[in-house]
């Protein structure tokens, strides 16, 4: 087991910011979920707010020195009726970005575990 926490293994503040940028872009390119993300391109200010929440959520959840102040997962996804296929498409994007960034297998598994732990809070709420 490594002595660095997940936040550090994800690259800290800079690494997480880069990951979030690439994850959101992957979602915008993914045919299964891009319709949910492409509208953000037309509102860059809102896109930056969303990315900020994602950065803070990932940083706080991975042991970083950040406090997440956004909505809870059920509140943020309420009424979206996210399907299993959409959820899995998002997970695939996340794992693909982690791989492209050279994130090691153990760290990817930890992120996957966190993502799966949130599934019930995100899908069909």
Query: What structural category characterises the helix and strand content?
Result: mainly alpha
CA radius of gyration: 14 Å
The chain-level mean pLDDT equals: 94
CATH architecture heading:
Orthogonal Bundle
β-strand amount: under 5%
Could you say which overall geometry the principal axes of the C-alpha atoms support?
A: globular
Total domain modules:
1
How would you sum up the major sheet? none
Number of strands: 0
State the end-to-end distance. Answer: 36 Å
In short:
Helices cover 66% and strands 0% of the residues. The chain is an all-alpha fold.
What does this structure look like?
With 125 residues, this protein is mostly helical. It has a single domain (6-122), classed as Globins (Globin-like, Orthogonal Bundle). Helices cover 66% and strands 0% of the residues. It contains eight helices and no strands. The chain has helices spanning 6-9, 12-29, 34-37, 44-61, 73-77, 84-100, 105-117, 119-122. Helix 2 (12-29) crosses helix 6 (84-100) and helix 6 runs antiparallel to helix 7. The protein is globular and about 40 Å long. The model has no long low-confidence stretch (mean pLDDT 94). Heme binds at residues 53, 77. Its cofactor is heme. One of its GO terms (molecular function) is heme binding. This is Group 1 truncated hemoglobin. Pfam families: Bac_globin (PF01152).
